Amino acid sequence: MARAGANRSGLIIRTARVYSGLFMLAFVTAHLLNLSLGVFSGDAMNKAKPFLTGIWSNPVMGSLLLTALVVHFLIGLWAIYRRPTLRTNPQDLVQLLSGICVVPLLATHVVGVMSLKLNGIPFDYAIALKFFWVDRPEIGLLQVILLSVVWIHGCAGLITWLRSKSDMRNVLGWLYPLAVAVPVMALTGYAEVGRQVLIEVQSQAAPSGYYETEPAASTSIPQPARTEPIRLPYEQVKRITNGIIWWSIALAALTLIAREVRVRVQSSQVVVIRRGNAPALASTSQLSVLDSFRAHHQPHASLCEGRGRCGTCAVRVTGFEYPLPEPTALEIKTLRRIGATEDMRLACQLTPAGGHLSVEPVYPADFTFEESEHAHPIPPPDMKQAQT
């Protein structure tokens, strides 16, 4: 019962992490696409706003976005706490570090937009761009960093998720160029419309700290007709966002400290892993077989970065000293999908209790789904013979 409950909890956590991440990635994508229209004009940005960034301004979508942000951040911290080791490959490390930064950075944008709503200030690009380029350029730079970090984190997670699915290998060929093109177009549009704003502000000699909304005849960014200057609640937003940033940093630091304490307190046994004819590797019962390989800088296939989804880290167990732990529901599902034999386990999910363990890798370390003409990779010839 306890095992089944743990499996269900793990499935819920993984599902919440994936879909909260996809929701935030959709949010960032909409904003980047809206910014890219700045290449044409600020008018084009404002006309597309109701269909791209405007849909996120209503209370329902705003609440869902905040919920997704908090859920994704907390699950990310939980994953860090549960990690047996922080030694990993560069891509996974980038995704790990960028995930910690998502809440502090994204909070500045979300809180800023919500403050404008609560203060009855209409949000359009005329106000935002003058604020980012003229009055508070450091905040404008922070927004660029925000979008870049969240985009990198989202794309890394999306590509890792899709890469673990053999039927998605054709989709990745389209995603890689889009992952580069979208932010480049957005930054180009942001820079172009920012140049227009600077020219217009210099010609109008607008004072800093508030923005008159009656445009000059030459302006290319439409502004709402008002008789009073728009005063942005900058100090209010700054106070709230600073609090969120420091609390996020504190939670991340506490998570790392708690993880270090857990690793040091947790009892462990010596594990000696032998892979094929290679020299034996000294490890501990705290590490999975895949983590043991990584700790010794031994390359091993793992397209999903050790999340138990792709099956490419599968090994054939040829000998063991201590009884091996039973596979989880996730591992069983993945093993069945790849047509594994009874002596096969996932290296990312198998954590030996101690003693000697001998394994044979099923797939080469540089394996990719593109190497197979079938829906799922075929085991090497010796494994096909073992199945027959």
From TrEMBL:
Name the InterPro entries for this protein.
Answer: 2Fe-2S_ferredoxin-like_sf, 2Fe-2S_ferredoxin-type, Beta-grasp_dom_sf, SQR/QFR_C/D
Where does the chain cross the membrane? 21-40, 60-81, 93-116, 139-162, 174-191
Report the residue ranges that make up the 2Fe-2S ferredoxin-type domain in this protein.
288-352
Q: Which Pfam families match?
A: Fer2
Keywords on this record?
A: Membrane, Transmembrane, Transmembrane helix
Task: Specify the superkingdom.
Answer: Bacteria
UniProt-listed CDD domains:
fer2, SQR_QFR_TM
What is the name listed in the Swiss-Prot or TrEMBL entry for this protein?
Answer: 2Fe-2S ferredoxin-type domain-containing protein
